[in-house]
Write a structure and sequence with these properties.
Elements (H helix, E strand, L loop, with lengths): L1 H5 L3 H22 L5 H7 L4 H4 L1 H21 L4 H20 L3 H13 L4 H12 L2 H33 L3 H20 L13 H24 L4 H23 L13 H29 L12 H6 L2 H17 L5 H21 L4 H27 L7 H28 L10 H32 L14 H9 L3
Helix pairs in contact: 2-8, 2-9, 2-10, 5-7, 5-8, 5-11, 5-18, 6-7, 6-8, 6-10, 8-9, 8-18, 9-15, 9-17, 11-12, 11-18, 13-16, 13-17, 13-18, 13-19, 15-17, 16-17, 16-19, 18-19
């Protein structure tokens, strides 16, 4: 009888694979349009800067939708929010796949951006619905999908576009979204029995305006000039809106994101690491995809096609998935305070390798694999820190905020690499090879700062946790006790 009680049901066994498929779908969609930007500009007869919005709009909508979805998902509507989000992604994928012109493509990509908020919701579902050991593994693996999916989205887009046309990747996304929607409708458990709280509309508007302004600034900085008055004005207004948002969240009884949670050093370590590692990671992703496609006549590069450039990121995905397994084993004996900077140091070594040795394609592939391992370690540890520090009813909101700052880091990293390359012009309108080296060294600096910040914050959190045991109702263990367990590698 006892064995029967501990045996997971068929639905419970299917839940984790389905949640992982949703996370991978969201990650692939977020990077789906990146290799197509030159093709979109040519087919739809728009400039490269305008075509860039087919990628930017997805991140903009995702940054705004993620905390909204997280807050709604922390209440009694989680199942409906998950199904509704996948339905919006399906509609957006269909709209982007149909020959509706550039305007239709941008609207479709905007709707796809709603799906970015589903990954933290999947983490919250795993935490509530699965046994503790499986839940920890599931949350860490779901965090990896944002890294692994990028490495799959680029080559997938290139291959489909090469042989089936520009819209084939969006048809693939539509089919995958339809399958995920059907699977979630079958296996997703009932929403948690929690009180419904009013939605913080003003907080959502302030966050949307501030985030949109900052992300827009990263996309137009090269055209406007990084020191131009209107760019600096846009950044200043965006920062003021975000400061207003923080003050509002501290005062309102039902905040969109409980920013007080950031006072916890574990949560602060996870969020700061997500931001900085996102910057450093996307510096390298942007550099590598451009470097391998540079014609050999420039004196560097390999003149590779879009397909080969995408395949160069496969080691990144493979390395991140391997890292997830390594973290699962190491966390039994090594606390996150040590694993967090360790991942940053591995990525630092890989970035130094690219800066010093990139004459052969194999060197680039090895470097991307190592960066995948390092990024995989940090991304596996971040959700463990958050889950161990926040109460269950705040998991979705806290994970959503972590996802938001991660995507801000991605955008900043892309903008940083573009700015450094633009500052090192070469012949034929291409950047000089020194530009790639300088951008990689800038990424190294970010990795060093990330490692130091993550280690100091996580270590301080571990050493200040009270050693005494604190008991509480089942499923609602106090944050101090949860942090103690996490710090001991459980």
């Amino acid at each position: 009888m006892e064995a029967a009680d501990t045996t997971p049901s068929r639905r419970e066994r299917a839940l984790l694979p389905v949640l992982l498929s949703v996370g991978m779908l969201v990650a692939v969609i977020s990077s789906l349009g990146a290799p197509l930007i030159p093709t979109i500009a040519r087919v739809d007869q728009v400039s490269l800067g305008v075509a860039q919005w087919s990628l930017t709009v997805t991140m903009l909508v995702g940054a705004v939708a993620t905390p909204l979805i997280g807050r709604l998902g922390d209440g009694p509507q989680r199942r409906g929010v998950m199904l509704g989000g996948l339905a919006v992604v399906l509609v957006g994928s269909l709209l982007a796949a149909l020959p509706t012109g550039f305007a239709g493509l941008v609207v479709g990509r905007a709707l796809q951006g709603v799906g970015i908020g589903l990954t933290p919701l999947a983490m919250a579902t795993a935490r509530d619905a699965l046994p503790p050991e499986r839940a920890r593994h599931a949350v860490a693996t779901l965090s990896l999908t944002s890294a692994a999916g990028v490495g799959l989205g680029y080559p997938l887009t290139g291959i489909l576009a090469e042989y089936l046309g520009m819209h084939a990747g969006f048809w693939f996304a539509a089919i995958a979204a339809a399958l995920a929607l059907a699977a979630i409708s079958v296996v997703h458990p009932a929403s948690p029995d929690r009180p419904k709280r009013p939605l913080d509309v003003l907080g959502a508007v302030l966050l949307a305006a501030g985030m949109a302004g900052l992300l827009y600034a990263t996309t137009v900085g090269e055209n406007w000039g990084w020191g131009s008055a209107r760019l600096l004005g846009l950044v200043a207004v965006s920062v003021l809106l975000l400061v207003w948002w923080v003050l509002h969240e501290l005062r309102t009884p039902h905040p969109l994101v409980d920013v007080r949670l950031v006072r916890d050093r574990a949560v602060l370590a996870a969020d700061l690491t997500a931001l900085l590692s996102g910057v450093a990671m996307y510096v390298m992703l942007s550099l590598v995809t451009q470097f391998v496609q540079t014609p050999e006549a420039a004196g560097y590069g390999f003149g590779a096609s879009v397909v080969v450039a995408g395949l160069a990121l496969v080691p990144f995905s493979a390395g991140s998935m391997v890292a997830g397994r390594l973290v699962r084993l190491a966390s039994r004996t090594v606390p996150p305070a040590r694993l967090l900077p360790l991942g940053c140091l591995v990525s630092l070594c890989a970035t130094v390798l690219f800066a010093c040795a990139h004459d052969g394609l194999w060197e680039v592939l090895v470097g991307m694999g190592l960066i995948g391992v390092g990024a995989g370690v940090t991304m596996s540890v971040m959700p463990a820190l958050i889950v161990g520090a926040v109460p269950p009813h705040e998991t979705g909101s806290a994970m959503s905020f972590n996802q938001v700052v991660k995507y801000i880091g991605y955008s900043m990293g892309s903008a940083l690499s573009a700015a450094v390359l633009a500052a090192h012009p070469g012949g034929g309108g291409l950047p000089a090879e020194d530009g790639y080296r300088a951008a990689a060294l800038a990424g190294c600096v970010v990795w060093v700062v990330t490692a130091l910040a993550g280690y100091l914050l996580a270590r301080a959190q571990r050493t200040t946790t009270p050693p005494r045991q604190v008991s509480g109702p089942a499923g609602t263990a106090p944050a101090a006790e949860a942090r103690r367990v996490t710090s001991n590698g459980a």
